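dumping this here before i forget
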Amino acid sequence: MNETATAEAVPMYLTAKQLAKRWHMTLNALYTARSKADRDFPPGFRQGRGLLFPLDGVLAHEAKKKMADRSFNPGLDASNAPVERKAA
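structure:
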């Protein structure tokens, strides 16, 4: 297989529309979340009139969010903590 065909098959950047579809949200919700003051959002940049997000930044952000979620990270769930017994 040709190297250029492989490189073209995997996009290096996602458009705002592609990212909104990936995260099951509206485009307006994506723009609103990006503009919030906490800035807990993958880095993106303007290219002409559009907004592009590097794929590696999106994947890193998703991994970070996944590790902060108790359903994916059992270590964060307090019910999984070892039980401390008092001495009798």
